[in-house]
Amino acid sequence: MKWHLMIAGLIVVVMKLVGTSLFFVYFSEIFPTPGSPGGTNSPIDDSKGECPILWTFYKGRCYFFSAQQKTWADSRKHCVDSGSDLVIINSREELAFLFNHTQNEVYFIGLTDQDAEGKWKWIDNTALNINM
């Protein structure tokens, strides 16, 4: 039995019960999927879904749901400093996965209109596509 995972899960549940109102989501670029550019570490084994403790594996990526209260800019800086970034949602499946993990909380994602008010784009400069 993987006790370290059970303990980590218990910590997450306790943090949720204590309750903070501002969260953010980011995914790890530390463990790139096979064939993806960048990264120096070994790719994630899709059959096992290996992620660091407290991270959640989904379709070749590791997601971290943080309980730290920060601004969007500070959240992004923290992610980048950790070798990650705020999540870019690429499919309805990924959106459903994130929704299922965040239903009653508020999280930051990698979407911004800081360059032009009301003109939303992802942090990789791609335009928001609501018809994905």
UniProtKB/TrEMBL annotation:
Domain (C-type lectin) ranges: 58-132
InterPro entries recorded: C-type_lectin-like, C-type_lectin-like/link_sf, CLEC5A, CTDL_fold
Superkingdom per UniProt: Eukaryota
Entry keyword set: Membrane, Transmembrane, Transmembrane helix
Pfam families to which the protein is assigned, alphabetical: Lectin_C (PF00059)
SUPFAM superfamilies, sorted: C-type lectin-like (SSF56436)
Sequence intervals crossing the membrane: 7-27
Xref: PROSITE patterns: C_TYPE_LECTIN_2
Protein name per UniProt: C-type lectin domain containing 5A
